[in-house]
Amino acid sequence: MALLTEGRIIPLIAFILTWVATYIAIGMGKEGKIKIRRIAGLDAIEEVIGRSVEMGRPVFDIIGMGQFTDIYATQTIAGLSILSYVSGLCAKLGAKLYAPQARVDVMPVAIEVVRDAYRVEGKLDEIDVDEQLPYLSGTQFAWASGIIGMAARMKPAGNIMIGPFWAESMMFAETFDRVGAMQVGGTARTYQIPFFAALCDYVLIGEEIFAAGAYVSGDPQQIGSIAAQDWFKFAAIGLSILGALLASVGVNIIAELLSR
User: Fold this and answer.
1) Does residue 28 form part of some domain?
2) Buried b (16+ CB within 10 A) or exposed e, 205-244
3) Which of 7, 101, 207, 218 is deepest in the core (most CB within 10 A)?
């Protein structure tokens, strides 16, 4: 039995290089050598919260139904980072925050994230987690129905949805639009992005939610992971261009190399 299977040598090398690059990037992030550019979506989030304060109406922050043990965990972490950022702004500016929960494993983390943000602003006594971070249901449409009912009753001035979303994305976007809320939506689940794009005032598309989460959290691991991904994107683009140029003159060395 061969130790290495033909056709999988390059993917193995790429995996090892990815691990090494991520490790190096995280180290550079801890030293402050890597910075993430602030994206426009964060300005839109600030506008949502400012509008909520001016109108005297609450703001919702929905992080989706992802878990820490599924393939959408990174999106959930990005949503929690944004929740921390939103909580800090709400505490600072005086907007009332609601963040209904759907997962029992994520909920304790979300509560602590919000409490920490209010504690930093010296306003821990202004947050009621039982009221403002209620557990509605672990079932998709029961949870969605609960949020829709809250939105209909409270008529929030703003709604921020960052994280993994499924069919409920359309229900949320339509409901909050109907009650007049300004919305910022973002997910890396490409099937749901069109619903956000149709009804939200600003959309974070795909990997933008990871960049936004890393920016507001300042977490070296998130920052390093983003940087390592970008390095490999540049490498892939470079190889594609080089391969196309060489192939145009009859040299297929890049294609042959990548097939190994």
Assistant:
1) no
2) eeebbbbbbbbbbebbebbbbbbbbebeeeeeeeeeeebe
3) 101
Residue 96, amino acid: K
How many domains does the structure of the chain reveal?
A: 2
Q: Are residues 236 and 176 in the same domain?
A: no
User: Would you state the pLDDT for residue 222?
Assistant: 87
Q: Is residue 88 part of a domain?
A: yes
Q: What is the predicted pLDDT for the residue at 1? A: 43
Residues 139 and 259 in one domain: no
Least confident range of 69-78, 183-192, 231-240: 231-240
